[in-house]
Amino acid sequence: MEKLRVSRLPSIVVVVEGRVIHYRGSMHPLSAKSLRVFARDVIPNTFLFKLSNHDGLRRFVDQWRYYNK
């Protein structure tokens, strides 16, 4: 934990491409929305596939089913 620079528990950290990014929001109460926003902001856009319509969602799910048999 020292290498991740965690000074208190519980802690939420993300390691992206060797960088340690700490969740700075309140842990009490912790909301799903704040975690989603944190994840969305710290994960590079190149790692995520954005779905903007139902057809895109259908293609994504169909590919997932094909490759994850």
UniProtKB/TrEMBL annotation:
<protein>
    <submittedName>
        <fullName>Uncharacterized protein</fullName>
    </submittedName>
</protein>
